[in-house]
Amino acid sequence: MAAPPAFADRIEALLARRCCELLGLARRAGLAVAGYERVGEAVRRGDAALLVLALDGAEAGRRRLASSGVASARVLDASELSGVFGRERVAFAAVGPGPLCGRLKAELGRLAGFRPAATLEGIDIATAEPPRQYGGTKAHE
Predict the structure, then answer these.
(1) pTM of the predicted protein model
(2) Structure confidence by residue, pLDDT tens digits, 32-54
(3) Domains within the chain, CATH numbers bracketed
């Protein structure tokens, strides 16, 4: 049995959409910021657990932010990041810690397998996804 010719392209597109949806969810939850200045500020405050850097973003800015020691992913391009944040050009984004960040790391790791230029730094794919069950909160017990 052979896979259809465009199967890998379809999988890549679906993974990219999933990553953008998770990043959009983080933005709406107040966990994600975009833009070099706001990302740099989040890193300095210790609010960033993941940097999402555009594949086609500026190399100098990418190097400065990546040297902060925060896990980073260069998997999405600027047009994909721009669509998430509703801005003309976004090359840098930061996501705060939590289960949503862990899920995004796992999905970015999967997508990186389909994009040869993609890089992941400080992300262990085997442990990126958070546990499926969190135990609830006191309000739900």
Answers:
(1) 0.84
(2) 999 999 999 999 999 999 999 99
(3) 31-123 (3.30.1330.30)
